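Submission checklist for the structure archive. All mandatory fields must be present; incomplete records are returned to the submitter.

[x] Identifier: Amino acid ABC transporter ATP-binding protein (PAAT family)
[x] Organism: Stella humosa
[x] Residue count: 246
[x] Sequence attached
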Amino acid sequence: MPRAAPVLSIRGLRKSFGAVEVLRGIDLDVAPGELVFVIGPSGSGKSTLLRCCNRLEVPSDGSIHFDGTDILAPGTDINGVRRRIGMVFQNFNLYPHMTAAGNVTLALRQVLKKDRREADAMAAAALARVGLAEKRDAYPNELSGGQQQRVAIARALALEPKAVLFDEPTSALDPELVGSVLAVMRDLREAGMTMVVVSHEMGFARAAADRVVVMDQGVIVEQGPPAAVFGAPQHARTRAFVEQLV
Ligand code: ADP
Ligand code: MG
């Protein structure tokens, strides 16, 4: 059976900041419904890789195709691409003066031009999906970190993205709040969402990742199923990194 075309296809991706090249030739395909888990030491280029995928950073070289669109081509409607790639960051990035529902409807109204009634209904559905139906009128400072992150996930989901990229979504959370966010991510995976997740949550990777990608100094040094990468890492740097996490 032919494999489905990748949702995200990255070839020869390079990115320099001044004289420093932080991505040095990344090739990565992500299949529909696949959960790719990305690990690597701090500074290895994980965030830059995700940020290039919706052109928050402009690559120096290489190509990125997302859902059939060459996102680096000069004529590309980048806002159209950003609508279809959800991004979830470590620090939630919610507007403090807006309620949970307000944060979710904002994008629906501004980006998708939904009217208030439709946006409210879509926001309510998205908040219910992350288990926060009861919190729609709460402000961020009335929510735990885990709840705030779930609002951020709801905001991404409300736009009905083709894929969601997570950059250390649980790193800012107290340990007891991590599980609620990972549970939402696991539900999303069950629902067939295509996901790229940068995280240190190895238990989650073992349980939910289709593939683990190990980055070091701007390149992918190793990749494979979680059991292989964690159980029998091939690369010295992966071994050192994995040992320090468990
Ligand atoms: P990771 O997410 O794996 O920790 P990053 O992608 O954040 O790594 O960073 C990779 C390297 O690029 C680091 O050395 C970082 O200091 C550098 N870097 C990231 N963003 C910028 C920027 N906007 N300007 C200059 N250097 C940057
Ligand atoms: Mg990072």
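[x] Structure attached
Curator remark: The chain is about 40% helix and 25% strand. The chain has a mean pLDDT of 94.
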